[in-house]
Structures are given as C-alpha cells and as structure tokens.
User: What shape does this take?
Amino acid sequence: MSNKNKGLVELFQSKGLLFPINSEEVTEFENQNNIENENPKDWDNPIDLILRGKQQLQNIKLNTNSISSLEIQNLAMAAREGSTITDEVRKKMNEDRNNATKK
Amino acid sequence: MLIDKLEEVLLLLSYKDEDQKSANDAFTELYREYSKFLYALVRKKLNQMGVFDEQIMETAVGNTFLKIYENPLVFKVSENENTDNCFKAWLSVVSKNELLVLFKQYYGTNVTLETSILETVFEDTIIKEPVAESINVKLMQDAMNTLSERDREILSALYLYQEEGKNTPSTVLDTLCLMYGTTKDNIRQIKKRSESKIIDYFSKNSNLKPIKDVK
Assistant: This one.
C-alpha cells in the first residue's frame, strides 16, 4: 500500500465528518454547522456544573426501533412493578403464543 | 478567544485552590466561549449514530469541562498556532473520549484497550490518493444517505470508535451490539455492505473510477 493512499475513515475525518482532531478539521466543522443556535444547559451558571461533579448515563434513547431483549425484559418487569412472571401466567402466555402461531 | 487570553484563563483555573473566585470566573468565561461549539459537535455526532438524547450530550460535554477544570494545564498551546482552533480540536478529542467512556460504563463493557482482543475485520477500507482527492464533503454525505437509516447509524458509531492506523477493540463491538440490539456478525456485515455501497456511489458519481483502486 502506498503511503499516499487514504482509508475511508481517514477520508471522513479529513472532511470534518467525524470528531475534528486538528485546527483545519475544526474549521471544516464550523463551516458546515451553525453553533450559535445551541443553548447549553449551564449557560446562566456554569459553576453548577462543577457542583454537580462528574455524571454517568442513566439511560440511552436511540432513534432506531431496535431494542435489546434485556431492555425488553427490564421494561416488562418495570411494568409489572418489579415482580417476576408466575408459572401460571407464563403457562397462559405460552398457550396464547401457540394458539396465535397455529392461526 | 485569543490564544493569550486562553492561556491566562487556563492558568487561573490551575490556581483554583489559592483563588477560588478568579477560577470560577475563568471557568464561566471558558464555558460560555466553548460550550456552544461542543454542544453542536457532540449533538451532531450522536444524531449520526441515531442517538437523540439531550442527557447524553449534556453529560459528555459537562464531563469534558470538568476534565479541564480538574487539570487545566494538560492542554499545551503549540508555538505556531494563531487561533484557538487547536484548543477546540483538543476539546473535540476529549469529548469524544468522554462519550466512549460513558457508553462503556453504561453498557458495562469497560475493558482496557490493552487487554482487549482487536477486531481485524474492522481495518479501514483503503482508497488510493487520486480518488480520495476527488471526493468532496457533499459526495460523502450523499453516499452516506444511500444507506438505510440503521446501517448509517451503526457505521457512524463504528467510525466514532475507529482510530486511524488502529484496529477496533472487541469491547467496542460488544458495546455496539448492546446499543443497537444486534450481533457482531450483523455489525460486520453492515460495515462490509455499507462501505461497498459508499465506494460504489463514489465510482458512479466522482470524476475518477475508484472501484479498481479499492482493496
């Protein structure tokens, strides 16, 4: 491979389509995007940010309809207010599912 | 912000234990100067990944500013810089890393890069220079728009993690699987299929013919 070849990621990087890593890419990004419309959360009192300290994510909302089976299980459990499914209910669910499959 | 002013602000922050008020004023000035840039940047990158969650953006940007507050002198201005774009680029890299840390913490795949297995399947697709030079931003954006929304989001997420000259750690793949509720094989297929589509789009719409130049 010649040194002059470019990777696809490198190409995206150089055109300001990924996180900028140098001054030129910052300029590319700023030329393509209007940053003045932003309304930062702590604009009025940035010191609040220091007082809160480092934060972690509580949840993630994706645009896609994809949702992991674990998340589905967690949501279902939350809907049941934390309780597990009883054997009786699970048997009824399986029967309903089988009936639906037969139709 | 002028470079001299930026250096002064960072210096004031570094003396926060001796002069808290001046440090707070300096932090306020720094936040108001750069928070809009970082919000726009992180928002845009998250949206490309299909993530439309203000909390994630606010957390990543907030943690980035806290990192500066805790250790303001980590950033060094190089001699040839005339603008503060170098600082913005540095903020960009810090915010990207903060975002990756947040995702890893959230999905519980926080394994150090050194001990993880590298996914050679995620080596960068190579395009020869003359072809690469013929491709502009619009063509790249149009090529991305030929992908399905989900494929575009997954490819964008993958590119967020991919570093030039490095392979992608397997923990990244684990995180993406959890994020998008899919499998490693599916992500590999999406990458292969999507990049093939992008290259194909370039070949049909740029002046040069990249197909024969791509390995």
The domain at 1-107 of chain B is CATH 1.10.1740 (Rna Polymerase Sigma Factor; Chain: A).
